[in-house]
C-alpha cells in the first residue's frame, strides 16, 4: 500500500525549459545552472533530470560537497556528460574524492591550487566586491597563473552583489575588476570558461563581453526582480498544492488555532489543510495568508501550525480530500506568500521540506 503525501509540488517541464532557453539566448552563452539547495526547493533529482538534457545547459552548479557528489552520480547515470561545479570550498580531505568524481573545484589561493590532484579541473574564484569567497584580483592572477601552468584552469568566476538593483554602478565596477583579472591570465589550451552573470545580471546586462557561461539561479525557476519582470517571459516552474484533511464548524465566539488570534463573529465553516511551517510555509504569514480553494481565494484563519493551517470555506462546496492551491504561476504566487511572511521568494522555496512530494508535469 502506498501512503500518499499531503502536499505536492507540481513542476512544469515546459516552464523550466522555456526559462532556460530565454535566459541562454539573452546571455548569449550556455548556462551553468545552479541546482543548490534542492534545486531552490524544486527537487534536486527532478530538476537535474530535466536540465541535464537541455541543449543550452553546459553544466550544473552546487553549493556543498554532498550536493556535488549526488549530482555527479546522477549525471553519470543519465550519461549526458554535463559537468558539475562546486561553488564553495571543500575541505582538504574532500578534494581527492570530488576530483575523482570529475567535479570541477573552486580555487582561491595558492595553497588550494597546490593541493589539487593532477587530474583535477579548477575554476578560479575571484572576489570583486561581494566579500564572501574568492581571491582579490591581484592574488587571483597569481593563483590563476599557477593553475594554468599546471594545466588545471578550466574556468574563472565572480558573483555580482547588486545586479538585480536599478543602480548598476557597483555591478559595472565588479565586471571591470573581473575582466582585468581575465586579461592578465595566461592563455589556456581551451578558451577559459569565464562566468559572472547571475539571473539579475542576465536580465540587466544581456550578453557580457568575455563571458562564456552564465549562472541564472532563481530566474531559471521563473522569478525576476520587479523592475526586470518584463525583460523576459519567465514562468514560475512550481505549483504547490495540499489537501483538505478535515472539515468542521467554528461557532460564533470560538477561536481558531494557537493563542486565539482569530475569533469567529458568526458560525464559520473551516477546512483544515495538510501543510504547515514544518513543510516550509512561513509561520509569519499568520493573519495575512490566503489560499485558493474551490476556485476562490480564502483567508487562512489563526496561527499557522507546524503541520496544518485552517481556512474559511463558508459557503463553498468543499469535501475532505479536495485540493487546495497554496501557490501557482499567476493568481496566487510565491511572491504573494513571501510578502505575507515578510521574506523573499528564495527563502520560501528553499524552505520546502521533504514531506512535500515533487511531481513533474509537461
TrEMBL record:
SUPFAM superfamilies, sorted? Alanine racemase C-terminal domain-like, PLP-binding barrel
The top EC class, named as a word, is isomerase
EC number(s) from the headed UniProt entry: 5.1.1.1
Key word S-adenosyl-L-methionine present in the record?
no
Q: Which GO terms describe its molecular function?
A: alanine racemase activity; pyridoxal phosphate binding
Pathway(s) the chain acts in: Amino-acid biosynthesis; D-alanine biosynthesis; D-alanine from L-alanine: step 1/1
Which InterPro entries does the record match to this protein? Answer: Ala_racemase, Ala_racemase/Decarboxylase_C, Ala_racemase_C, Ala_racemase_N, Ala_racemase_pyridoxalP-BS, PLP-binding_barrel
Catalyzed reaction equations: L-alanine = D-alanine
Per its UniProt entry, which superkingdom is the organism in?
Answer: Bacteria
Q: Which residues carry this modification: N6-(pyridoxal phosphate)lysine?
A: 36
What is the documented function of this protein?
A: Catalyzes the interconversion of L-alanine and D-alanine. May also act on other amino acids.
Q: What GO terms in the biological process aspect are recorded for it?
A: D-alanine biosynthetic process
Q: Which cofactor does it need?
A: pyridoxal 5'-phosphate
Keywords of this entry: Isomerase, Pyridoxal phosphate
Q: Key word Isomerase present in the record?
A: yes
Protein name per the record: Alanine racemase
Single GO cellular component term = cytosol
Q: Which residues form the Alanine racemase C-terminal domain?
A: 237-361
Q: Where is the active site?
A: 36, 258
Q: Which Pfam families match?
A: Ala_racemase_C, Ala_racemase_N
Which sites bind substrate? 132, 306
Which family does the similarity line name?
Answer: Belongs to the alanine racemase family.
Amino acid at each position: 500500500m502506498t501512503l500518499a503525501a499531503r502536499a505536492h509540488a507540481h513542476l512544469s517541464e515546459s516552464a523550466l525549459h522555456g526559462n532556460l532557453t530565454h535566459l541562454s539566448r539573452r546571455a548569449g552563452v550556455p548556462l551553468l545552472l545552479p541546482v543548490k539547495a534542492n534545486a531552490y526547493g524544486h527537487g534536486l533529482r527532478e530538476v537535474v533530470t530535466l536540465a541535464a538534457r537541455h541543449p543550452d545547459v553546459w553544466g550544473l552548479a552546487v553549493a556543498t560537497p554532498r550536493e556535488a557528489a549526488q549530482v555527479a552520480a546522477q549525471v553519470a547515470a543519465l550519461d549526458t556528460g554535463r559537468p558539475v561545479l562546486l561553488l564553495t570550498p571543500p575541505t582538504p580531505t574532500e578534494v581527492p574524492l570530488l576530483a575523482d568524481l570529475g567535479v570541477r573545484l573552486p580555487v582561491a589561493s595558492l595553497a588550494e591550487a597546490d593541493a589539487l590532484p593532477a587530474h583535477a579541473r579548477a575554476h578560479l574564484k575571484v572576489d570583486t566586491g561581494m566579500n564572501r569567497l574568492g581571491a582579490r584580483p591581484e592574488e587571483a592572477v597569481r593563483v590563476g597563473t599557477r593553475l594554468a601552468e599546471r594545466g588545471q584552469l578550466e574556468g574563472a568566476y565572480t558573483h555580482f552583489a547588486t545586479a538585480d538593483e536599478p543602480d548598476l554602478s557597483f555591478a559595472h565596477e565588479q565586471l571591470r575588476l573581473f575582466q582585468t583579472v581575465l586579461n592578465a591570465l595566461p592563455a589556456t589550451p581551451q578558451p577559459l570558461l569565464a562566468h559572472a552573470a547571475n539571473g539579475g545580471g542576465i536580465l540587466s546586462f544581456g550578453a557580457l563581453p568575455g563571458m562564456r557561461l552564465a549562472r541564472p539561479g532563481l530566474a531559471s525557476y521563473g522569478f525576476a526582480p520587479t523592475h526586470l519582470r518584463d525583460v523576459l517571459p519567465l514562468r514560475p516552474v512550481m505549483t504547490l498544492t495540499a489537501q483538505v484533511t478535515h472539515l468542521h464548524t467554528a461557532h460564533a465566539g470560538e477561536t481558531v488555532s494557537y493563542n486565539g488570534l482569530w475569533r469567529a463573529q458568526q458560525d464559520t465553516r473551516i477546512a483544515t489543510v495538510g501543510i504547515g511551517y514544518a513543510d516550509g510555509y512561513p509561520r509569519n504569514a499568520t493573519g495575512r495568508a490566503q489560499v485558493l480553494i474551490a476556485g476562490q481565494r480564502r483567508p487562512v484563519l489563526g496561527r499557522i501550525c507546524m503541520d496544518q493551517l485552517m481556512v474559511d470555506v463558508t459557503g463553498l462546496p468543499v469535501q475532505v480530500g479536495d485540493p487546495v492551491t497554496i501557490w501557482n504561476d499567476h493568481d496566487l504566487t510565491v511572491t504573494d506568500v513571501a510578502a505575507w511572511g515578510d521574506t523573499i521568494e528564495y527563502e520560501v522555496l528553499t524552505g520546502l521540506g521533504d514531506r512535500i512530494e515533487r511531481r513533474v508535469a509537461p
